[in-house]
Amino acid sequence: MKGFVTFEGCEGVGKSTQIRLLREYLEGEKKDFVLTREPGGSRLAEKIRAVILDAGNAEMCDPCEALLYAAARAQHLHEIIIPALKAGKLVICDRYTDSTYAYQGFAKGLGRAWIDELNRLSVGEYTPELTIFLDLDPTSAFARKGGRDEGDRLEMLGADFHKKVYQGYLLLAERDPERFVRVDASGSKQQTHEKVLTLLRARGLI
Ligand SMILES: Nc1ncnc2c1ncn2[C@@H]1O[C@H](COP(=O)(O)OP(=O)(O)OP(=O)(O)O)[C@@H](O)[C@H]1O
Ligand SMILES: [Mg+2]
C-alpha cells in the first residue's frame, strides 16, 4: 500500500531508536506523517492485547495467540492506519505482519502457509510498500547493550528462540527482497539512520 512503511527486526536492534530519529528528521522537513505501533492507542486493540499478555491465560495455545494478535492488528489497521493513508499521510509502523511470520510462523512453528492465510484475512491488501529490516543478529544486539537486564531478558525468553526469529526474518528477506529490505544495523545509531534515509529517498518516500 502506497505510503505505508514498517520497521522490523529482532528485539533491541534499534527499531524504536530509528523511528525516533526519523520522526525528528520528518518534523524538520515539515512532512505529514503518522508514527504508530500496535496496538496504536486503539482502545479495542489494547483490550485484545491485554488478553494475550495476561499471565493468567497461560493455557493459551499458539494458534489462539496468533489469531488474537491478528485481531488486534486488524483493529489498529482500520482505526489508525487506513484513515491516515487515505488522508495521504506517510505511515510508519513499528512491527507489523512480518513479525507474525518471524515469531509465530517460524520461531513458534505455525508455518508460512498458515500465516499467509491469517494475514490475508486480517490485513488483506494493506501490505507495506516498504519494510525496513534492521539487520542485526540477536546475540550482537544484546551484547552491544552490555546491560545485565537485557542479558537476563534474552536468557529468560531463550536465546535459541531469538535466533529462530532472526532466521525467520532472513527468509522473508530472501522471499521478498523488493519490499523487505535489509539495512545493516550493526553501526552507530547515526550511521543506521543515514542508511534508512538513503533507502527512503531511493524509494521516493521522503
Ligand atoms: N546503533 C546502535 N548502537 C548502539 N546502541 C544502540 C543502537 N541503536 C539502538 N541502541 C540502543 O539499544 C537499545 C535498544 O534500542 P531500541 O529500543 O531502539 O530497540 P528496539 O528494536 O526498538 O527494541 P524492542 O524490540 O525491544 O522494541 C537502546 O538502549 C538503544 O539506545
Ligand atoms: Mg522498540
User: How many individual domains?
Assistant: 1
Under the CATH scheme, which class? Alpha Beta
Corresponding CATH architecture: 3-Layer(aba) Sandwich
Mean pLDDT, to the nearest integer, reads 94
Verbal overview:
The structure is a single chain. The protein is of the alpha/beta class. It has one domain: P-loop containing nucleotide triphosphate hydrolases (Rossmann fold), CATH 3.40.50. 59% of the residues lie in helices and 13% in strands. It has nine helices and five strands; from the N terminus they run βαβααβααβαααβα. The protein has helices at 15-28, 43-53, 62-86, 97-107, 112-123, 138-145, 148-157, 159-175, 189-202, and strands spanning 4-8, 33-37, 90-94, 130-135, 180-184. It has a five-stranded parallel beta sheet with strand order 2-3-1-4-5, with helices on both faces. It is globular and about 50 Å long. The two termini are 16 Å apart. The mean pLDDT is 94. Adenosine-5'-triphosphate binds next to α1, α6 and α9.
